[in-house]
């Protein structure tokens, strides 16, 4: 559980101001010489097994086939007694200090270990959740972008219909305008021609009346008084 | 075909160099040491490789235990005892063991 704190603080020491998960990947790609684009494999769940805090499990598995379960312990006891008896390990004041410190450390680890581990785990999980949230948001916005793009493409398809309708409208307007003007032209021309026709009729009528009047006048004039007497004497 | 014996020895040399320490048999140990790279660059590379292996196995995990740090500290304690042994020798209780 201390390693978890080391991991948390070690990342802060290595690169300040980034997420823990990304940092692990950064440190890994720094260590590997080949620049591969493959996704970085996830961290292993648990570290190598260690017995009694300082002896790696590999020692026990190494000795198990030859000496069984108690082999490494016998080896440890023998080594310890040898070092004590030959005074390769000398008992002096430092031994007492080391023993006291050892007791305190072991007591502290046993008592506060799980809570510190849970705390460090929570910190890590928060970092991972933040990174995950960023990733989810990015993905959601990108998906939204895809949806909008598709909608725009669908709209573009409709644009052809829009243009056709507009073209039809314009054609109709032109047609209407043309026909209106045609009507106007016909009417105007008809009015002019009617006028001329009426004019000619008028001329003819006037000439006719004038001629009639003139003939009447001349007839009346030519009726001499003796003809008037003659007609009157007939009655 | 004249250099065939030389080729066979070179192949054995290469095969030995690829093996890890745990797979080397006891008799081959000296020749295995001969294949190792003892230039300063090689030493640095092996130190870095060892550090990476230790780091990735015990510390760079999701749920590390006390083992990673504790082994490191225990190794430091042992190493400093070894370095101070010439001084600690004088605190011995008996002269003859």
UniProtKB/TrEMBL annotation, chain A:
Domain of life of the native organism: Eukaryota
Primary gene name: atp5pb
Compartment annotation: Mitochondrion; Mitochondrion inner membrane
The protein's name: ATP synthase subunit b
Quaternary organization: F-type ATPases have 2 components, CF(1) - the catalytic core - and CF(0) - the membrane proton channel. CF(1) and CF(0) have multiple subunits.
Keywords: CF(0), Hydrogen ion transport, Ion transport, Membrane, Mitochondrion, Mitochondrion inner membrane, Transport
Annotated GO CC locations: mitochondrial inner membrane; proton-transporting ATP synthase complex
UniProt xrefs under InterPro entries: ATP_synth_Bsub_B/MI25, ATP_synth_F0_suB
Family annotation (Pfam families): Mt_ATP-synt_B
Biological function: Subunit b, of the mitochondrial membrane ATP synthase complex (F(1)F(0) ATP synthase or Complex V) that produces ATP from ADP in the presence of a proton gradient across the membrane which is generated by electron transport complexes of the respiratory chain. ATP synthase complex consist of a soluble F(1) head domain - the catalytic core - and a membrane F(1) domain - the membrane proton channel. These two domains are linked by a central stalk rotating inside the F(1) region and a stationary peripheral stalk.
GO molecular function, one term: proton-transporting ATP synthase activity, rotational mechanism
Gene3D superfamilies: 1.20.5.2210
Recorded family membership: Belongs to the eukaryotic ATPase B chain family.
TrEMBL record, chain B:
Membrane-spanning segments: 64-83
Subcellular compartments: Mitochondrion membrane
Keyword annotations of the record: ATP synthesis, CF(0), Hydrogen ion transport, Ion transport, Membrane, Mitochondrion, Transmembrane, Transmembrane helix, Transport
Pfam families recorded: WRW
Matches recorded under InterPro entries: F1F0-ATPsyn_F_prd (IPR019344)
GO MF annotation terms: proton-transporting ATP synthase activity, rotational mechanism
Cellular compartments per GO CC: mitochondrial membrane; proton-transporting ATP synthase complex
One Gene Ontology biological process: proton motive force-driven mitochondrial ATP synthesis
Family to which this protein belongs: Belongs to the ATPase F chain family.
Name by which UniProt lists this protein: ATP synthase subunit f, mitochondrial-like
Lineage of the species this protein comes from: Eukaryota, Metazoa, Chordata, Craniata, Vertebrata
